[in-house]
Amino acid sequence: MKCLKTVLMVFLLCAFSAIQALDVGDTGIWYEPGLSGHGLVVTGFGSDDQAGAVLTWYTYTPEGEQVWFFSDNLEPGQSAVNIYLPLGSFPVFDHSLGEPVGELTVQKLSADVLRLNFLVFIWDDDCEPRPQAGPSPNFCYGQITLQRLTPQLEIIP
């Protein structure tokens, strides 16, 4: 099964090798119109070669529970990033990220469209495709196309 995951991630990364990098102007909320409750929050910071972004991906578990994943810092030119589940519950969270629970790869198709490839390790005992209603292929891996919901930031030099 681990071999399948590795082959799948290599395929996803190779298929999108000409990825346009995110920048601070991509900060905002992105959503998938066909999947209610699924989206991405991009929080960009810095400028030029010191820029970065943190991603918050919100989706659902195979059981239908809302879940929020948080990323490592996405550095300039980088497209793949580890994701983590927060530990604890509001208002007391464990601030250590623990072990990665998956990986996101972001492809910027235009100023208003992103493609998000995901691989989630924590739901994959067998990782057979488990279809759900809508365009998402399954809960373990796949891709969704996101549209910008918030206006693009204007970068003032």
Tell me about this structure.
This protein is mostly beta strands. It has a single domain, classed as Lipocalin. It is built from one helix and ten strands, in the order H-E-E-E-E-E-E-E-E-E-E. The chain has one helix at residues 2-15; strands at 28-31, 39-45, 52-60, 66-74, 80-84, 87-89, 92-94, 102-110, 113-120, 141-148. It has an eight-stranded antiparallel β-barrel with strand order 1-2-3-4-5-8-9-10. Strands 6-7 form a two-stranded antiparallel ribbon. The termini are far apart. The model is unreliable at 3-17 and 128-137 (pLDDT under 50).
For this entry, give a set of tags:
157 residues; mainly beta; Lipocalin; 41% strand; 10 strands; disordered N terminus; 1 helix; single chain; two-stranded antiparallel sheet
Number of domains: 1
Order of helices and strands: HEEEEEEEEEE
Number of helices: 1
Shape: globular
Helical fraction equals under 10%
Number of strands: 10
Layout of strands and helices, then pairs:
Blueprint lengths: L1 H14 L12 E4 L7 E7 L6 E9 L5 E9 L5 E5 L2 E3 L2 E3 L7 E9 L2 E8 L20 E8 L9
Antiparallel strand pairs: 1-2, 1-10, 2-3, 3-4, 4-5, 5-8, 6-7, 8-9, 9-10
Provide a quick synopsis of the model.
With 157 residues, the chain is mainly β.
